[in-house]
Amino acid sequence: MTMLKLTNLHKTFNAGTVNEKKALDGLNFDLADGDFATIVGSNGAGKSTMFNAITGAFFVEDGTIELDGEDITFRKEHLRSKIIGHLFQDQMKGTAPT
Ligand SMILES: Nc1ncnc2c1ncn2[C@@H]1O[C@H](COP(=O)(O)OP(=O)(O)O)[C@@H](O)[C@H]1O
Ligand SMILES: [Mg+2]
Question: How big is the CA angle at 57 (ends 76 and 66), to the nearest 5 degrees?
Fold first, then answer.
């Protein structure tokens, strides 16, 4: 069964400025129960943006995020943190789950 389903995710930083950057441009990604995945990509490919979209650090401009069949696209980060673990690259960021 599909555990995580990302459909057509779009995230643009600094939209409408000279620094505009389309970090996610129609990303689709599925994970099934029990899958173990490693995401590989060059610096700036959008890996962190993808994870931050999943954990809810920001809302995507388009697309949907489903977890166990439930649409969590607009669920707030602190609520997602109850069901999604997140280890930060910068250890000083984020908080440990309780
Ligand atoms: N907060 C931000 N503001 C502006 N641009 C950003 C921000 N976060 C990421 N970006 C840009 O989005 C792109 C993807 O970045 P990122 O997801 O951090 O890549 P990765 O984790 O794969 O190295 C890069 O071009 C990066 O500069
Ligand atoms: Mg990164």
Answer: 60
Beta bridge partners of 25: 10
Residue 23: strand pairing partners: none
Q: Count of domains in the chain? A: 1
Mutate to test the pocket of ligand 1, among 6, 24, 39, 49 (most ligand atoms within 8 A of CB): 49
Model confidence over 51-89: pLDDT tens digits?
A: 999 999 999 999 999 999 999 999 999 999 999 998 887
Q: From ligand 1's centre to the CA of 18, what distance in Å?
A: 15
pTM of the full structure? 0.93
Range of 66's domain? 2-80
CA of 1 to the centre of ligand 1 (A): 31
Q: Is residue 25 part of a domain?
A: yes
Q: What CATH number does the domain containing 65 carry?
A: 3.40.50.300
